[in-house]
Design a protein that fits this description.
By secondary structure, the protein is mainly alpha-helical. It contains six helices and two strands. Helices cover about 70% and strands about 5% of the residues. It is rod-shaped and about 80 Å long.
């Protein structure tokens, strides 16, 4: 008997009673950071065809890891640049810790909004 296209491409079957069922597996999502997880949630809810395509092609993990790396790099850079522009320094941290914490929290919140808008929700 001639092999099916599935068998020609390396696919195998298993016997279940009287039936031959294909051995199919979907790759598991590895551990990605918070940005990758947020983007995953976004594409699952708003871009289902794109999500399904990535999942079935086996590229979802690498795609999410790339998104996570881009977002983390952008976040670090934004926080550093905004803190420098606003004069939030180690000297302020040493002299008035509560003011430093408050300003850094505001800076981080702003950077998170930018990352969500520019990378996560696109």
């Amino acid at each position: 008997m001639e092999k099916s296209i599935f068998e020609q491409t390396g696919g195998t079957y298993r016997q279940e009673g009287d039936y031959l069922l294909p051995n199919l597996t979907v790759p598991e999502i590895g551990s990605v950071g918070i940005w990758g997880q947020r983007h995953l949630r976004y594409i699952k809810e708003h871009r289902r065809a794109f999500y399904t395509s990535l999942q079935l092609s086996g590229k979802l993990d690498s795609y999410l890891a790339d998104i996570d790396q881009q977002a983390e790099a952008m976040f670090s850079q934004l926080v550093e640049q905004i803190a420098q522009c606003q004069g939030v320094t180690e000297q302020l941290k040493a002299s008035d810790q509560m003011a430093w914490v408050g300003r850094m929290n505001n800076i981080r919140a702003g950077a998170i909004e930018v990352i969500n808008e520019e990378i996560v929700c696109t």
